[in-house]
Design brief:
The structure is a homotetramer. By secondary structure, the first copy, chain A, is an alpha/beta fold. Helix content of chain A is 46%, strand content 10%. The first copy, chain A, has a 6-stranded parallel sheet with strand order 6-2-1-7-8-9, with helices on both faces. The first copy, chain A, has a 3-stranded antiparallel sheet with strand order 3-5-4. Chains A and C meet through helix 1, helix 2, helix 3, helix 5 and strand 3 of A and helix 1, helix 2, helix 3, helix 5 and strand 3 of C.
Chain lengths: 364, 364, 364, 364
Amino acid sequence: MADHAPSVAMEAVLKPSCDLPEDMPKIRGYDFNQGVDLQAVLKSYITTGFQASSLGLAIQEINLMIEKRLEPVEEDEGKEWKESDEQRKSGCTIFLGYTSNLISSGVRESIRYLVEHKMVDVIVSTAGGIEEDLIKCLAHTYLGEFSLSGKELRLRGINRIGNLLVPNDNYCKFEDWVVPILDQMLLEQNTEGTRWTPSKMIHRLGKEINNTDSVYYWAYKNNIPVFSPALTDGSLGDMLYFHSFKNPGLVLDIVEDIRRINSQAVFAKRTGMIILGGGLIKHHICNANLMRNGADHAVFVNTGQEFDGSDSGARPDEAISWGKIKTDAKPVKVYADASLVFPLIVAQTFALHADKLTAGKKTD
Amino acid sequence: MADHAPSVAMEAVLKPSCDLPEDMPKIRGYDFNQGVDLQAVLKSYITTGFQASSLGLAIQEINLMIEKRLEPVEEDEGKEWKESDEQRKSGCTIFLGYTSNLISSGVRESIRYLVEHKMVDVIVSTAGGIEEDLIKCLAHTYLGEFSLSGKELRLRGINRIGNLLVPNDNYCKFEDWVVPILDQMLLEQNTEGTRWTPSKMIHRLGKEINNTDSVYYWAYKNNIPVFSPALTDGSLGDMLYFHSFKNPGLVLDIVEDIRRINSQAVFAKRTGMIILGGGLIKHHICNANLMRNGADHAVFVNTGQEFDGSDSGARPDEAISWGKIKTDAKPVKVYADASLVFPLIVAQTFALHADKLTAGKKTD
Amino acid sequence: MADHAPSVAMEAVLKPSCDLPEDMPKIRGYDFNQGVDLQAVLKSYITTGFQASSLGLAIQEINLMIEKRLEPVEEDEGKEWKESDEQRKSGCTIFLGYTSNLISSGVRESIRYLVEHKMVDVIVSTAGGIEEDLIKCLAHTYLGEFSLSGKELRLRGINRIGNLLVPNDNYCKFEDWVVPILDQMLLEQNTEGTRWTPSKMIHRLGKEINNTDSVYYWAYKNNIPVFSPALTDGSLGDMLYFHSFKNPGLVLDIVEDIRRINSQAVFAKRTGMIILGGGLIKHHICNANLMRNGADHAVFVNTGQEFDGSDSGARPDEAISWGKIKTDAKPVKVYADASLVFPLIVAQTFALHADKLTAGKKTD
Amino acid sequence: MADHAPSVAMEAVLKPSCDLPEDMPKIRGYDFNQGVDLQAVLKSYITTGFQASSLGLAIQEINLMIEKRLEPVEEDEGKEWKESDEQRKSGCTIFLGYTSNLISSGVRESIRYLVEHKMVDVIVSTAGGIEEDLIKCLAHTYLGEFSLSGKELRLRGINRIGNLLVPNDNYCKFEDWVVPILDQMLLEQNTEGTRWTPSKMIHRLGKEINNTDSVYYWAYKNNIPVFSPALTDGSLGDMLYFHSFKNPGLVLDIVEDIRRINSQAVFAKRTGMIILGGGLIKHHICNANLMRNGADHAVFVNTGQEFDGSDSGARPDEAISWGKIKTDAKPVKVYADASLVFPLIVAQTFALHADKLTAGKKTD
């Protein structure tokens, strides 16, 4: 038997390495011997590796959006193309997108905080992401379990969203509330020539709900446009369907809204995208940012994977190939359920800089 | 030291079991000593376990949809509520949904086959799921790699979709093709009072593309409605945006379409849902089937997971709680990239029964 | 056209619901208008839904383990079966398992804290989970990116672990350090009749590293057994392989260790399992707990899914079917990369109760 | 209002593209108008995109392994380092690894076929991957459902593995079968000086089971080494644990096996790795191939993702950075449950070339 190990093995295993750059961050986690300091724990994430580092980078990137947002904007900047007064004088226009389930969850309160304090500029959500916020003003959503039997729940009229439970009565209450508004909208269409779009309808619903718990109440108050091109795809669609029998004729146009959202991107000085979840909302914000040859900043939080070629799971680098994110941007994707990380992100970004962000703003 | 093992351990490990039912399927995979018989390999999947079994069950469930579809429908059935002649006299109305990426991929050819031969009744896709089919009639999509650099691709004008590459010239060609159609649509709106909806626009685009490779050409020929409520969320939206400057005024109404898709579900004798991917398309088909208190059959193919509470990743059992699938249905979810399994599913279902399914049908 | 919506649709959509129990938690997230209070943010997670709730439940469950752990144990309890003095007089024996990558990451510091302060009783990790801790005492691991080119890295002698980078020189230093220890171990085997097992070897390596940054130094100091049945599957295996040429004959027996770990479970008053990641470490801890007919408490943190039938991705309920978790336990699975949540978990559990947990303990 | 679209938007959307190479494959799926030809369907996968393309590439890569395997090997090649006669005279040494659940599933039959016909050279599996094969020779595994209640199953003594069910009596039968073999092994250790290792024990169990349904019977017959360093981590461990009370002293050494598996890699002319699943088995095969400075060919099939930094989910490119796969190799990862794709892979590779692969081989 040989008395020394095969040289090929020795050389492969003990291959010498080149030096890494001096300033490369070393991996080191939080030392709890220093006590329980959650701020310090979260600060340590950037050198913790894996998704902890991604969360740390996401916090950095959003703080950069905020820093740019606070930079003064020259009067003339963006003037030429300005379509209306809508475009905010902001150093960085922040697009926030989220899927319906996050409004059903307690992430809604984090989102409402951002909207209440005008910390974001443009919102995109799905139909459920609109109506569930309004419905929560009418009745509660509860904590259940992922494994509850669908059949037993249906027999009891309880709807499940992951580990959340929504009594079906909530939707009955929603019908009572929304149908008179639909009547009124149709009347305005017919008498005043109002051309309704999803964003205009959401603005109106936000006004009507008149409840400070609501994301869309604050979007209305703060004149933050909310886009939801498939606004019929949910309970609102059910109501519009029923309404189309009783009182037909309401039209919701999606062409005007595509121009409106694109303008938000085109005429911005800089843009940042914060997108929680995938599907329509992710694509819609990214596509609007193609109109300016790419967002300057981007943070994605979702659980999707790229292997199936879905836009939902695509890494930000795919969006760079399309011109939806600038080629020199440093986009960040955090692979996580947003419920786990978004409140922490808000805590370390917008809420931390609340004073500066809300200085001089008035929500009248 | 003890000379016998702890009794708690012995009892826990060697706990006797109750008998399982006699007819419970035994796990057994394909024996390649019988030669390479791919039909037999796929037949063995149902007793192979894990997602192989799910694929086997999905094939069974779709074959059940097909069997029911072929059952004769009484003249009077569904008459009362019939809104128009649109509802097909089919024993089982099949809703097919798929995300944009599948049209970009070669799954498009499987979908086109189903539509060409009137094997499905209602289609839901996203904007990309419409336009990429049309664009493929104008220029090719290529096989690349997931890891190609976004920046380098953007500099060369090449867009990446997972491991697919789409030259940006394809979208330029699409603009050349679609803008005159938009002009014409606006003219018809203004002169003939046409009220455009996404489904009507897709029908028109299918007519105009006039190419037998196209899914929507065949949807047009076979009068299969295609719904895409957020039709502005993609290249079509870009074109509508540009068009809104040159030739403003085109309106796309989504309310009429929600009534139209819901009617497809309400007035059907039975329904089956085949949904590839998540997001809007999954929710939209399921929501329409809530209008009939649940689909009778459902097959989902996607890579989503339930843990983040997304509708995309929800198990079919969640849809049962909402009344979107009947409480006594046997829905199947296959956890897989649809590109891997959908061609095999078509091979073992629709294509296998092509003779029966196309008997007496004429595509004029 | 009908003037009222189909009754089937109305009834399905507006189905009345039964009442939910009064004490069912309502979904409500943190309100940042109350300021940035991270403790309060984390407290709000249990009513935030989805994985935020799972994290909240995991924290509760671990705090219950700690509470039980602190309960006094009668002198006689577990006496009959007691194999040795090894079994700690603890009200709840806590098994901690983690995969190699977590030691490479900054989660190592959280783990070291638990071991340093004798907060856990039994550890299971993979070979990498042992050696990377030791290697980190010799040289640094760095933060890189997931997308760095493997070929370029290899040419430079830099190894990638996700977004971490480990210079190959680290392994050369490890060889220099470990080979004399292997020589000594072989000498002791041959002269003193030592029968080495993975757990004994890890104990020895922990002694030799003599570094307070090391998890296994503290495991040695605190006499916490560490199991790693496949200890040859990594750099240690490479070194044992090389050593087998130079100085052959070292034996590592895995049978003695299986008895040792099983005894830890069998003779415990109660047990709790905290398992970060999947594969061997998850199965090994669960299997040991089968020996007592199930753990009393269990928290899993991983990104695996059940659909492929892997033990890694199995929900805790699968382990109940095997008797690895008690049928009346309330196990929790958090679907997340452990780097994101484990430091937060430690902050809200062990570190929060550090005073009580370390009272009367001495690490001499 | 402006009468032309913003130029930034026009230029970003209509950016011209560079030409792609002429020979770049065009995306095109199977056309079912050509009939149901499953061979042709699978052939079309390479140009279908996403994981269908990955499956196509995996089939190509394994066929390349087979082609190289069939190349004649010079007498002298590898002579110098040859440790024993074990190293097969094969142009490409194929390492096959798989997790326990695949043996529980019907993928076992595909694996057994490969081993029966000496189509692979080295096997690595987990403890469950060994014992479940033997147990299946004693009693059946059944098809159940993922959602069955763990508590109810435990009360009935039925164990769940994903959607498979294994009556606990199967393990009682296994005990009856294996304990006398353990007695005999201990006797041989004590009387003949046999130094048992996991691979030697598996060889013996394969001999004893003496059943042509068994993977390890054929591994025994064909002298294919099977490595499972943590062989105590499962039912075999339970039995060894019980046995250690009744009849103590059996030793299983893992050091000898690490040398044996590494030799398989070092002395091979070329190597190919086919790894189904993650965890120990993936790392163990890759680590052995580091000893030759990288495998020449690699196909991974699993559902893991890279974002958590686990070795299980790492892309093959990570293994290149470590020298576990050669820098000029073309490794393929298929993101799928192996039950869905491995039988198809075998059908298009080993089984298709069975004649050539088995020519001149004799299984006596």
